[in-house]
Amino acid sequence: MIAIDLLEKYGALKKFFAKNETVFEEGNIPTHYYQIVYGEIKMSNYNDDAREFIQGIFYKEQSFGEPPLFLNQKYPANAIAVEDSEVLLLPKDSFMKLLEENSAISIKIIENLAQRLYYKSVMAAEMSTQEPEHRVLKLIDHGIAYFNFKKDENGYLISFTRQQIGDLTGLRVETVIRTIKALEKKGVLKIINRKVYR
Predict the structure, then answer these.
(1) How much is the CA Rg of the chain, to the nearest whole Å?
(2) What domain range includes position 155?
(3) Is residue 108 in a domain?
(4) Which of 135-144, 158-167, 173-182 has the highest average model confidence (pLDDT)?
(5) Predicted TM-score (pTM) above 0.85
(6) Which of 42, 113, 28 is CA-nearest to residue 75?
(7) How far apart are the C-alpha atoms of 31 and 11, rounded to whole Å?
(8) Residue 19 in contact with residue 132, Cβ under 8 Å?
(9) Average pLDDT over residues 63-70
(10) What are the residue boundaries of the HTH crp-type domain, all occurrences included (predicted)?
């Protein structure tokens, strides 16, 4: 989202996180701005039944964890590398200076946060009122619009695992599997070599 050379000009450093390594923990006070160079990071927490709930999944060139950074509040979720990832870390003071000195970047950050807030509002409404098929399609269509899923002759390849779809929609994995099969029968989704396409 922010050019790497600009982040590095303000003092950002690259850090490698192995698969399943924690970037930051729920309850920590934010100290840095994070932007992914490559890889995949999820923000999640667990309910009282030890069930994981994914707050968001982030990919190359996306940032994560900004709301608590701006509010000086504790992180409400853990950030964990889903796969080997490299992340740019910029100290908070330097990040704020970058925003003050680059108004176009500030607007970009505001748009990004607004988009995430909009998505959370839409998904909250979906999870409270809609049937599984509707929830799954809403999430997939959001992924196509905002996560740059790859398109080939089969359609858009949905990069989420069945588990991630469940954790993002509040559905059990078994329900997700049944729902995807039902949507395939209706011709809304395709399953090719166990991969889901829209």
Answers:
(1) 18
(2) 130-197
(3) no
(4) 173-182
(5) no
(6) 28
(7) 14
(8) no
(9) 94
(10) 130-198
